[in-house]
Design goal:
The protein is an alpha+beta fold. About 20% of the residues lie in helices and about 25% in strands. It has five helices and nine strands; from the N terminus they run αβαααββββββββα. The longest helix has about 30 residues, at about 1-30.
Amino acid sequence: MTRQIAAARFARAIAALMMTALLQLGVAATAIGAEPARTADGKPNLNGIWQVLNTANWDLQEHAARAGQVVTLGAVGAVPAGLGVVEGDEIPYLPAAAAKKKENFENRLTADPEIKCYLPGVPRATYMPYPFQIVQTPNFVLMAYEYAGATRTIYMDKAPPNPVDSWMGHSVGHWEGDTLVVDVTGLNDQTWFDRAGNFHSDALHVVERYTPRSPDALIYEATIEDPKVFSRPWKMSMPLYRRLEQNAQLQEFKCVEFVEELMYGHLRKQPSK
């Protein structure tokens, strides 16, 4: 009898856990399908502070956890494991470019532009482990990134010509239903996609798509095209989450202050003997 009572209690406990899980899934499904908030002109309201929760900045492709290159940093400098954000988990490098990517990886401790606090470029600015803010108007969408104070303007109406290639490029946007589509050109070749050495040339063309999944979540997609480096276009995608703290705000991260010696130490005048 005691065993029967114990078994019955166990079965009830399992049933209760399953019911709780199903209810939670139902709440999650409702939240994902919820109608996004809208601006006065009827467009999805993207205003706010957003951030990713993934390891794409370490490596876009699926990767196991691995030690960092600075042994004395221990776990602090290690690379966390990640499932990858690239469609099909394949980046279609041309043969010579694949060799360059391997070289970049081997020299990543000094070669990664992030080490020197260069502006992160597009799409990397989106999935660095720092928040960024969207300010949305009918004619412009402004994006401000905590890392290195990077900013860019997405022209939604009349876009001026792009004067020169730059780290953050030239962004022109339009709406396709509830999706903000941004065409990014005019990018220089001084940025990488991640810390694993994935790179591009000055022929990079990025098409971004920001699609609401709920009032506080977006699906971000970036289609990459660069005929100098890749054999075909390829795509990455990931969720973006709205920061919900009551006092959420961007903080200053003037990272040049932390890399001055690395960037300019060799220019220091040596004392005369």
